[in-house]
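Hi L.,

As promised, ABC transporter ATP-binding protein:
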Amino acid sequence: MSMHGGAPGGQTGRYGKGRTRIASADEAAQRAENAEAPKIPHLLGRIVELFAAHKVALITTVVLVLVGAALAIIPPLLTQRAFDDGLFPVDASGAASGPNIPVLTTLVLAMIGVFIVSALLGVWQTWLTANIGNKVMGTLRVRLFTHLQAMELSFFTRTKTGVIQSRLQNDVGGVASVLTNTVSSVLGNTVTVISAFIAMLILNWQLTIIALVLMPFMVIAQRRVGQVRARIAGKTQESLSEMTAITQETLSVSGILLSKSFTRQRSEIERYADENRNQISLQVRQQMTGQWFFAMVNIFMSSIPAIVYLVAGWLVTGGVADITAGTIVAFTTVQARLLFPLMGLMRVALDLQTSSALFARIFEYLDLKPAISDAAGARPVPTDGALGRVEFDRVSFRYPDADGESRPTLDDVSFTIEPGQFAAFVGPSGAGKTTVSYLVPRLYEASSGEVRFAGDDVRELSQESLMTHIGIVSQETYLFHATIAENLRYARPDATDAELEAAARAANIHETIASFPEGYATVVGERGYRLSGGEKQRIAIARVLLKDPAVLVLDEATSALDTISERVVQEALDDAARGRTTIAIAHRLSTVVAADVIFVIVAGRVVEQGTHAELVGVDGVYASLYRQQEQRPVLETPSVE
């Protein structure tokens, strides 16, 4: 029994840079990322279509944004009246008459009422946008995940897992923020700026001109601060990502085993410490960068009201305008609220471009066409007497990304495996043996010729039905971070405990499982790290037996095991092969000497076929390979079972 320590926690994938909206980022970096987005025809129409199901909620949201922005201008106007008519009213002769409490009370209650209504509308708007954005995001995420499940195997062999995960998590996750960060922002800022300027004009047009002259300098200064800090923030984020990657690499089970076995803990600690020092430096720079800019901006922002006071004094003294104290207070209140809406409007084009890029990257994946799909009218596998027969008729195959001038992986290969036969494929590395195991379940499509299953061309059968009748045990066993029972039930979720035990007994693993303290409830750990190689492989065999396929494909299922484990697993495989067609891709010829037929593949062609005795008697390629392996010294290793 080999329960190696505790089960490790789940590993965080190393996804690389997420491709999504860069919050408060350097605009140049954001534009560069947007430029890399794919060009999707009719993109706007497809985006609108996504939100079509939420038409009423969207219209309501737009109305709420417009009303909320308009209401924000009312309090300054009420403030003017509160000062002029409530706090400092004057009689007909122009003399101060003291506060008018009834008028002041009415105006204050009106202001409080506007604040309450604005707050309620804001909550309602947030609820609507959150619902719409997250529902669209959820729908897109499931659509994309479903579409990726239909993609052919070659797509995943040529695409980094981190890139796929980034599309699902970062790009799709950014959809929810489009409404709040883009649509609501554009609408709200536009209405706020227009309403504010109208209110300022109503209050005093001369002061409005002064504010318009001074405002651009403040906006430009504020943007400059944001850009400088954004560059530092980008470097800080990259440093954090690097620290996360170091943590994932070195503190995973594999990483710990590697660093301990090569005594590299000190160097790993130093690598982490170096990046940590870099992170500290960047954090300090981020906090300090632009402090002088901020000081200047704060001075400027504080100075604008003072300048307004001074200009108002000149206007009143010169008799140019009749400006009251309430007008000055209300005007400076409105003017102070213009900075951030104006800065937001200056990013409108970039925000819209960023949102389009976000959707373009999602639609790029949704528009991918699976290279292998069910034909129109695809039928289920026939379950008559031919079930289990596998035929290759002049099959040639070249991998999709292979050079057109290179030798095909399989070249004009023909053979027939009858139901119940044990067929082995042997040959040198790279000869094309594993490719045969990929073409039978149609994980790849033959370039020419026909692959037939149960007498029918696999291209005329539904993929789901085809895979139902095929079980695969590969060299690299994949187990989930779950219990043994859950890993077994992946083949048949409705399997009973008795059926699990029967499959485990057939795979020669039940006694081992029973010896564990938690039995079938034992958590196997990340990728099955708590189990030995032989134990993982036999659990994989039990999982396939629970599926009970007509055809069993063994892709070098014992090549990574030690001699003792191989012997135990081979016994389980021999039992699993009884009564079903078995296709074994073998590196060690000793595992297939009892095969009904052995096909020898060299450079993509079947050069020999027959039983072990027949092929040894021919004294050809097979006999040469067999002699080489027989002469190779075999070191017996202690059992880890």
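The longest strand covers residues 390-397.

Thanks again for sending the construct details.

K.
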